[in-house]
Structures are given as C-alpha cells and as structure tokens.
Amino acid sequence: MHTSERLPRETARDFAFRVLRDNIVSLDLKPGTLISENEIAMEFGVSRTPVREAIIDLAKAGIIEILPQRGSYVSLIDPSMVEESRFVRKILDKAVIELACEIAPKDVIDEIEENVHLQEFYLEKEDADRIYMLDNQFHYLIYKAAGKETTYDMSSTMMLHFDRVRTLSVETVKDLKIVKDHREMLEAIKAGDKETAVFLVEKHLGRYKLDEAQMKQEHPEYFK
Amino acid sequence: MHTSERLPRETARDFAFRVLRDNIVSLDLKPGTLISENEIAMEFGVSRTPVREAIIDLAKAGIIEILPQRGSYVSLIDPSMVEESRFVRKILDKAVIELACEIAPKDVIDEIEENVHLQEFYLEKEDADRIYMLDNQFHYLIYKAAGKETTYDMSSTMMLHFDRVRTLSVETVKDLKIVKDHREMLEAIKAGDKETAVFLVEKHLGRYKLDEAQMKQEHPEYFK
DNA sequence: ATAGATAGACTAGTATACAAGTAGACCAGC
DNA sequence: GCTGGTCTACTTGTATACTAGTCTATCTAT
After folding, report:
1. pTM greater than 0.85 (yes/no)
2. Which residues make beta-bridge pairs with A77?
3. Segment 83-112 of chain A within 8 Å of chain B by CB
4. Which end of chain B is flanked by fewer CB atoms within 10 Å, N or C?
5. Which nucleotide minimizes the distance between its C1' and the CA of B14?
C-alpha cells in the first residue's frame, strides 16, 4: 500500500479515510484484499479508533465490506454498482451543467478557465497524476458554478465505484480528447448554451468506455 | 427526546444513528440543540464509541455540526441545503421513474400496489405516522423498480434536510392529494407512460409548498 | 471597578482494554 | 483416512481511559 504524509490540520480519521480511499481507487489495494484495522493502524501510526471510523465510512460507500468478527475486505468490483454510479453521475452532471449555463458566476468561471488551462499545460508534459487531479477538480468546479457543492460531495462517495474502474480503463485521463471536452464544456457554459453543454456531458461520459468483458478477462479476480 | 427499543440484531451504532436521525427529522431535537456524546451514550445505554460514530455520520450528512473541543449541535435549517436536496430529489426521481416505466418487474409493481392500497386504507383512518412511513417506502419502491436501490440509499442522507422541513410544512402527508398522486404514478408505471410519470413527479414534489417566509416567521430560531 | 490571569468543568479526538464471535490448525478417537 | 471437538489466534464491536483544547466563572492585581 502506498501511504502518504498527514496534512497539517488533518485529523487522524480524515487521514486514514483519504489514504485508504486513494489506495482502493487506484487499485493499489486490490479488490478482495483483506484489511485489518490493527494492521492499518500500525502502518498509519495512529490507533484503531480513527482507522475504524474511516473504514466504516468506506463501507457505507460500498467499497469496503465489513464482516463482523471475521474481517473487512476491499469490495470486489460490482458491475451493477459501477453502472449505477455512472447512471447517477450522468443525470446529475447534465442537470448541473444546465444550471451552470444559467447562473455560473464570473469568479468560478475564472477558476474553471485556469483549471482547463493547466490541463492543457500538463497534457504536454504527460503528467497523468496531475491531470487526474485537475479532472476531478474540473467536475467539482462545474458543481460549484451551479451552487451545488454539497451535491458533488454526496455523490462523490458513490462515484468511487466508477472511479475505480476508470483506473482499469484503457482510455486514460491523459487523453487529448478528454481535455478537449473540458475546454468545450467551459466555452458552452460561458456562452450559456445549455443544449451543447448537455450534449458534451453525454459524449464525455461515453468516452470512458468501460469494456466490462475485456476487464473481466484481464482481471477476473477483481470482479464479483 | 423520544427514544426507542433496540432492534434484534441492530448494532449499538446503527441504533444510535437511527434514533438520533428520527429525533432530528421529527424536530423532537430542535435545530440548534447542543448534544453531548456522553449524555446521549448514557441515555441510550451504550458507550460513547457507537454514539460518536453515529454523530459523525449525521455530521457528514450535514444535520449535525461538530465543533472540535467545543460541542456538537443539531444544525440550524439551512434553506440553501433544503433547496439543494430538493433539487437532487427532483432530478433523481424523474430519471428513476422514467426507468421504472421501462423495466419495473412484476413483483415490485405488486409491492407498490400493496403499498398504495395501504396508504388509501390508513388515509381513512387518519393515521399520519403510518402514512408517513408508507410514503417513504413508496418512493423507495420506485427506485427498487428501476433497480437503483443504492441511489436511494445514497440520496436519503441528503434528503434529511428536505425531510426535516417537510415536518414543518403545513401540507401534511395525510393529504388526500398526496395519496392520489401515488396512485396515479403507479398507474403510469404500469402503463409504461413515461411522460405522464415524469409530469406527476414534478407536480407531486411541487405540493410540498415550503413557504420559507412563513416557517421562518413561526420558528425564527430554527433557521440559519 | 475593571482587566487579566487562572482554575475547573466541560468538549471532541485518540488510544487502549476488554468482550464476543469466527476460522483454522491440531489432535484424539474411531 | 476421516470425523469431530478443542484450542489458538485472529477479527470486529464496545467500553473506558487519556489527551488536548475551549469556555466560563472567579479571583487577583492594578
């Protein structure tokens, strides 16, 4: 497992949650892996309590399964959950970008502008990690532009299922097309062009071609 | 606070979560109330740990605010959160009922049928609590009919904001119109009539006229 | 009288101890 | 060889102890 430094005012619980989540989404912790509260606590240098609280959160999100008195496991990838999270994301993204076209305030548009600019910058440098971060931030900013930050937060836990298979996807975030989509969405929002914006979201999400059959063939042990 | 019995195989944490949530949504625990982990633990007959875990969950949902080393409070009603949860609900409900029109399996339709029948039954008896439960279950069943149970679960935490002001609303769940809406939605699903179904959802959610100004006047101390 | 220091009683965050239950290794008896 | 019981070493669930920070009331010094 790839650990990390504890941030300045980060509580032990938030720290444990963040590191565990990142490792699960990035597949450093493989689906089906047994995780021990004690072991993780030792590894992270904190006690069981905050680790346990983090694990409970992740279990509520459905990417960890807790079996009382037996153990906790990283959930196997459940295609129906992936599909469902994608369903929610598509619905919400479309509604939110439509709203953003109407009411996006100038300062948030500026933020998005900077974000897309950086994506283009790091695309040249082929810095995949950086772009992955910027990609996530981009989507957050769209929600912010529509005044629906909480909606983003709520849905983000469910999106972990989707994020995890994105990691498996052949279509990487480094792809030129992805960044181009973002640029076009930004322009649509600035122009207040709802129809185009919604169309772009649809197209964009369609890009993450999640070839379930192929993924299952390559990593049968990851799937339910 | 109105407590309750611990269910058969319910963990202390789930028990604490359920009772706290119900008391907050029903406004038995008034917005702004200071809640003490120790006090609640004593009252519920469990230790601080499960109570604390429940409180953290509710804080993540945004209906409790934790101020480290100071105290935890039942959040004041935040109109923007109410609006946002309503926004999400409307969007999801419409998409889900549309899907239900397409793929609702026979057995789930039967369940909905029974549910609506019971609503009509208890409407005569004016059993508001029963109908409130059935109302919630009805909406869950629509999601189930569309195969989106997890989506329901995920959104339900956010809906707590909406549910809480529903308690304040003059328009009660006992209203004949509400039950009639449900009956009509069921018929639309059975007929596979998407347009009507979506229209009904829109109309239905519009019924919970949340007259913010009036509520604020009656209970100014509840609002942010 | 007033401003500041201080002590105590709270809080949540974290650590640790204990309880209850599971799974698997091991061994006895057949 | 196989079956069944038992013991051990784990697991999570819960309880309790400790840490560190905040607020308030009181007391002191000016």
Report:
1. yes
2. A223
3. 84, 87-88, 91-92, 95
4. C
5. D13
CB contact under 8 A, A154 and B150: no
Residues 71-130 of A, Cβ under 7 A from nucleic strand D: 71-72
Neighboring chain A residues of B91 at a CB cutoff of 8 Å = 91-92, 95
Q: Judge: B80–A158 Cβ closer than 8 Å, yes or no.
A: no
Distance between start and end Cα atoms, chain B = 22
Q: How far off is chain B from A53, nearest CA to CA, in Å?
A: 7
**Structure tokens that stand for B198 in this block:** 């979506």
Q: Which residues is A34 bridged to in the sheet?
A: A73
Give the model's confidence band at A92: pLDDT under 50 very low, under 70 low, under 90 confident, else very high: very high
Predicted confidence at residue B65, as pLDDT, reads 96
Q: Which of B62, B150, B157 sits opposite A84 (nearest CB)?
A: B150
Radius of gyration of chain B (CA): 18
Least confident of A31-40, A49-58, A111-120, A175-184: A175-184
Please check the confidence at residue A207 and state whether its pLDDT lies above 90. no
φ, ψ for residue B137 (rounded to 5)?
A: -65, -40
Q: Over 60: is that where the pLDDT of B32 sits?
A: yes
Confidence band (pLDDT; 50, 70, 90) for B214?
confident
Adjacency order of strands within the sheet including B34-35:
B34-35, B71-74, B64-67
Query: Which whole number is the average pLDDT over A155-163?
Result: 94
Query: Could you give the CA distance from residue A99 to residue A84 in angstroms, rounded to a whole number?
Result: 23
For B125-135, b where at least 16 C-beta lie within 10 A, e where not — what string?
A: eeeeebbbebb
User: Which residue of chain B has the CA closest to A147?
Assistant: B84
- Chain A residues within 8 A of B60 when measuring between CB atoms: 57
Q: Which pLDDT belongs to residue B211?
A: 75
The C-alpha atoms of residue B5 and residue B7 are separated, in whole angstroms, by 6
